[in-house]
Amino acid sequence: MTDSVNIGFQENHDYGMMTDKKWQAIINNDASYNNQFFYAVKTTGIFCKPSCKSRVPKKENVRIFQNAEQALQANFRPCKRCKPTNEKLPDSEWVALITEYIDKNFIEKLTLETLADIAHGSPYHLHRTFKKITGITPVEYIQQVRLNVAKKYLIQTNKAIADISICVGMPNTPYFITLFRKKTGHTPAQYRELH
């Protein structure tokens, strides 16, 4: 008896159930379902109309909402691409979402195209807006995050330089060493000795 009550609560808590029809609408960018429901992606913190042309999320990361207000109340931000609230997300908030994603996923292969896809915008717009808000490009920010983590590894561990380069998402060790020297003035080995 308790289980059925909990299951019912969970469905109500999620403001709507994922049905095969809704999932097909998301996969097929079906505009006929717009305003019937909205979907949010837990990993990005963004919600969309069913017709959104963004990359199809993993089904297990999707939450369904009956309206945009419910998605906003659950702390999801409107997509820049499909504009489910017909309002633009302020650029600073959009860039904050992107930097947060980079901070959590810097080990992955991150390209401008990948980030634009995840952030529901174009690579050109992402690059321009990111630089306007932060003063650096998304690629420079990714490098900065990776090198800051590498510095911690160099100081706090005895890991080999090649292992550290892999741990920070840069499997090409010579490139890692070159970039590290360019940005810090020292090779990773020199940096470790100094600190």
UniProtKB/TrEMBL annotation:
Residue ranges of domain HTH araC/xylS-type in the record: 96-194
Pfam families: Ada_Zn_binding, HTH_18
Coiled-coil region: none
Cofactor: Zn(2+)
InterPro entries (UniProt xref): Ada-like_dom_sf, Ada_DNA_repair_Zn-bd, Homeodomain-like_sf, HTH_AraC, HTH_AraC-typ_CS, Me-P-triester_DNA_alkyl-Trfase
Assigned keywords, A-Z: Activator, DNA damage, DNA repair, DNA-binding, Metal-binding, Methyltransferase, Transcription, Transcription regulation, Transferase, Zinc
Record PROSITE patterns: HTH_ARAC_FAMILY_1, HTH_ARAC_FAMILY_2
Alphabetical list of PANTHER family matching this protein: ARAC-FAMILY TRANSCRIPTIONAL REGULATOR, HTH-TYPE TRANSCRIPTIONAL ACTIVATOR RHAS
Protein name: Bifunctional transcriptional activator/DNA repair enzyme AdaA
